[in-house]
Design goal:
Blueprint lengths: L22 H5 L6 H4 L9 E7 L5 E7 L1 H4 L4 E6 L3 H4 L34 E2 L5 E8 L2 H9 L2 E6 L6 H4 L27 E5 L2 H7 L2 E9 L11 E7 L2 E6 L4 H12 L6 E5 L15 H13 L3 E4 L9 E2 L2 E9 L5 E13 L5 H16 L5 E10 L5 E2 L6 H19 L3 H8 L10 H14 L17 E11 L13 E7 L5 E4 L9 H12 L10 E3 L3 E2 L14 H28 L6 E4 L2 E4 L7 E2 H6 L6 E7 L10 E11 L5 E11 L6 H21 L4 E2 L4 E2 L17 E7 L21 H13 L10 H10 L3
Parallel strand pairs: 1-12, 10-11, 13-17, 15-16, 20-21, 28-31
Antiparallel strand pairs: 1-5, 2-4, 2-6, 3-5, 7-16, 8-14, 9-10, 9-12, 11-22, 14-15, 18-27, 19-20, 19-26, 23-24, 24-25, 27-28, 29-30
Helix pairs in contact: 11-18, 14-15, 17-18
Amino acid sequence: MRQPFKPRKARKHIGGYRPRIDGLEKASGRALYADDVAIKANFPDLLYAKVLRSPHAHARIKRLDTARAEALPGVKAVLTYKDPEVAALAPTSAGWTDGVDTVSFKRMMWKRFCDRRVLSDYVCWVGDEAGVVVAAETEAIAEEALRRLDVEWEVLPFVLDPVEAMKPGAPVVHPDIASHNVLPADPVGGNDVYLTKGDFAKAFAEAEVTAEATSAYHNANQSTLENWCCLAKWEENRLTLWSNSYEADQTRMFVSQTLGLPLNKVRVVCNFVGGQFGRNDTGDQPLFIFTALLAKKAGRPVKFKHTRREAFHDSRQPAVYTARAGAKRDGTITALGFAALGNAGAYADHTMFALKFAPAEAAEMAFAHIPNLKMEAYGVYTNKLPACMMRGVGNSQLNLSLGHIVDVLAEKLAMDPIDLAVKNFGHAWENLPDKSLAAVLREGSRRIGWDKRHAAGAGPLHEGAKKRGKGFSFHPGWHAEWQEQRRGKIQVALRLNPDGTVMLDAPTVETGPGSNTCNVLGCAEALGFLGITPAEIRWDSVVDTDKGLKDTVQTDSAVSFLQSEAMVDAARELKKKVLETAAGVLKARPEDLDIDGGRIFPKASPDKGVPFREVLWQGDLVPIAVTISRPPSDEKTGVPFLAAFAEVDVDTSTGKVAVDKLVILNDCGTVMYASGAEAQQLGGQVAGLGETLTEEIIYDAATGVPLNFNWIDYKIPTMADMPDIEPVLMEVWRGAGEYGACGIGESVLTCTPRAVLNAVYNAIGARIDDIPLKPEKVLKALAGNGR
């Protein structure tokens, strides 16, 4: 932090720097996670579950004999695909919802792609959950039981590359859904060409200057510290599920609908979650179902937890983008097109969210002033790890392409790419130049020293063979309040005790970004008329569906302001009730009273006030309670922009790229909690730089076996690898409501890969179009450039 953020409007609690409300709880080890709850001390008769994993990339179980496993001492239950309660389960997807809303089976998001069965005899990638799960007294016994299964496999041909998968005669992964492996059009994602405006082909052909660029994004892993974990326990015919899903209400719906249980027969409890990063966006997981069925069969509580290897369960959606742009010589872009080819892996999950849904949202926010537009995408089944949700879903892949085509086109126009961006990009609710975009780019260019940037490859050598370069990328933010309409009503409850302390019920599973701190600060801000401090507010970290209020899921980075906006309404209602209570005690009419700074006073004589606590102690001592169900505002305001600037050193003798400096800029509308927001900007760069430089899943092409599902060979950056990072929070744009904020946590890493790639081009004058940016790619690019 070089220059502390200064809010445009001073508030008492919102927008400042302070410790997190759960900092001490987490640092002292008192914060409980699913794995802390699901232990023998709490459940003495606990059993442990292990599921059979496919050793083949594509196969079917021809014959299964579980006798030797069932005979092993300590094995208490074995469940297979042949059991009637499993065979009766309907096919499903890991895409009922993206976490924003709660939906039923019939209203699931990707109903066209129900390609999963719980404990299927048909497997589609090495590591796929196959048709057997075992419950035993210990994990070791359960693992030994799996080794004693007698399984005969029918090994099928497989395909790993999406281009090969599209060719006639290629192995077909899900023939009932995609006869040639290409996922068909669907009502949510739309057709293959999912967005058109004007006549792109004609405008591109007639453009004075054109450019084309290809970018490839790989399937990075979310790398959360905490692996999937759940515990299922039946009491008579009622199921309780403890888990680290961050979608408590949606998990209850999924379990209820899949097992045919009434909602009041399913209880879901979620504690703190050790990192999310998109992994938990697929809350409709077969693991919940087979753990519940296994617990019922065993008649004892059962725990299932992924190992670190099993935590490579899904990944970012890999995609190869080809972008084309046409422009007038003055830099006015007249045509813009993107074509994406995505490797869905073994199951569709949220592939089309990443390839169509999210890019369409970004296009609405950034391409509104470009007259001719065409966006198309193809998702292809293969026999790899399923691609799915990851922080920055769909936007990171699009940005790698967007920042590329802008850089290439600007060079052809002999124009500064910052000027080209400001001249053309923005949303429909503001004229060009977009004030937010211009602000983040101008501020970023100032902080990185953009005016000292040399032409591509024209900088001097230093320290022998090193060359230095600078690059940037930009992107629209997500989400503002109007984009959260799908959530339905946001629920919060306030209870004011007679001593002036407050019980806040704003259910959301805390995954690490500090939304719980935002909620407490928002509550204190809204109750400013009472003079309440954050220390006087009690917030419960456990989300329990039995409590009644629906949780607000921590997706889209929107919890930080959605619940605080609801608290403004709740506080207004609470103020009305406090004055009604005070009127009874003070023998006055409520409309003649007011309250401010913790004092209740007659409007006609503000100096004759009394502390509200004194008034409440004279009443019946019944807490004053308010519950609000409020839909997000539908006022369309567009969104603000974000940007990343990078400065790199490239060793032209070894190909090694070192990122020396990053400047991360986010226009937030309103910064709800500056310490937390900057922590997001800094922490997000671990993933952003990891994806750019070192992280990559490697497969054995001959067998389809993934070779590095561990944190030794899958190289995540450490603190020692991180460069100088300058986080910059801004308040230029403003949305609807009291705060008018926009989420930033999801977006902070989106621009980093392209900013680094553009900086490398600026350093060496040769483009590298795919990540991770390995030294051999740099050397190859240098060789191709005649060096």
